[in-house]
Design goal:
Shape: globular
Number of domains: 1
Order of helices and strands: HHHHHHHH
Number of helices: 8
Domain CAAX prenyl protease 2/Lysostaphin resistance protein A-like: 132-223
Family: Belongs to the UPF0177 family.
InterPro entries: CAAX_protease, Rce1/LyrA-like_dom
Largest sheet: none
Strand content: under 5%
GO molecular function, one term: endopeptidase activity
Keywords: Hydrolase, Membrane, Protease, Transmembrane, Transmembrane helix
């Protein structure tokens, strides 16, 4: 009984901690986005942008520290910095092409009226028009780092830390579904589409055992979408 209670308490604390890292990411990105409300006042906009950049740097430091601290404590899958090889590069390119083909199909469904434009994409497009350079930097460089550390790294190490087939599959699928919900907060076809993209990324994490490959793949995907 005590063992069960201790296990449940541990999981509840891990859920709260993980949600805390999500909140840190959302708060820092929200401060960054507040700059768009002050574009007519250069002084205020630069002031808010500066605060947003500082908040983002602090948030990224906290999230990154927690991820690598986890690996120091328990790392049965052997996640670490692996060297790049030709085979790894080609496989990463294949994953990227697969993501692009999938997204072209998704775009066709939207243009055909079968699926509505995701609200997340509409918001990103509006932000890009107001702050193209800074929004590009955030979307292409910063957001992938945050999201891979939180939705792949910290999440999988908290809840699916055993290196076996069942845990790896559950880690990939649930990570992908939560990633989808973070981008489309309703259970519709766009949520499924975002979840499939998340599955590409979660598979990459389990396959490479190196978060940097995920971040690079995510950056390439966002760059292609931004262009």
């Amino acid at each position: 009984m005590k063992t069960t209670s201790r296990y449940l308490l541990t999981k509840i604390l891990q859920i709260l901690k993980w949600l805390g890292f999500v909140a840190i990411y959302l708060i820092s990105s929200s401060i960054f986005q507040l700059t768009t409300f002050y574009l007519n006042d250069p002084v205020k906009s630069q002031y808010v942008l500066g605060i947003g950049l500082i908040a983002t740097a602090i948030a990224l430091s906290i999230v990154g520290w927690r991820y690598y601290r986890q690996l120091d404590t328990a790392n049965p899958r052997g996640f670490s910095h692996k060297s790049m090889t030709a085979n790894k590069l080609w496989f990463m390119l294949a994953l990227f092409i697969g993501m692009m083909i999938f997204q072209y199909g998704w775009a066709w469904l939207i243009s055909s009226g079968i699926i509505n434009m995701p609200e997340n994409q509409t918001a990103v497009a509006e932000q890009s028009l107001k702050m193209p350079i800074w929004n590009g930097i955030y979307s292409i460089l910063l957001a992938p780092i945050f999201e891979e550390l939180i939705f792949r790294g910290i999440y999988m190490n908290y809840f699916f830390n055993k290196d076996n087939r069942l845990n790896n599959i559950l880690a990939m699928v649930t990570s992908a579904l939560i990633f989808g919900f973070a981008h489309e907060m309703q259970f519709d076809l766009n949520w499924i589409m975002y979840s499939i993209l998340g599955l590409f990324l979660s598979y990459s994490y389990i396959h490479y055992r190196d978060i940097r490959f995920n971040i690079g793949l995510h950056m390439l995907n966002n760059l292609a979408s931004f262009l």
